[in-house]
Amino acid sequence: MKRIFTIVGLSLMLLGASAWAQKPDQQKSEAMDSRAEKAVHITQGPNVSNISGNAATISWTTNTNGANHVRYRIAGGKNEWQSAYHQGGGTTHTLELTGLQPHKTYEYQILTRDGDVRKQGEFQTK
Known about the structure:
The protein is an alpha+beta fold. The chain has one helix spanning 2-38; strands at 42-49, 55-74, 82-98, 105-111, 117-124.
C-alpha cells in the first residue's frame, strides 16, 4: 500500500514539474499572440447588412489575420452580451448575429482575442 502512495506521489510530482517547466514557453507564446493581435487593424467596415427582425450580418476586413469575435446586446440595456464567434482568424470577417428582437437598437463590439474592444457601433433591427 505504501508503494502505491509513493508511486502516485512521484507521478503527481513529475506531472507538476513538467507543467511548470512548460509554463514560461506558454506565457511567451501567449504574449507574442497578444502583441500580434494588437497589430491587427480594421481597414474596411464594419458593415452591418441583411438586417431583419431577428438577425443581421456584420462584416469587416483587417490588415492581417485577426480574431472573429463580436458581442452584441440591446443598446443601453443591462442584459448580458450575446456572442458571435468563428474559430480561427483571417483578414475577411463575416459573422451572423442571431436571436435579435424586432424594432430594437443593438450595440456591438468587435473584440480582439484578448477581449479588448477593437471597434464598436450600433444598428437597428426591422
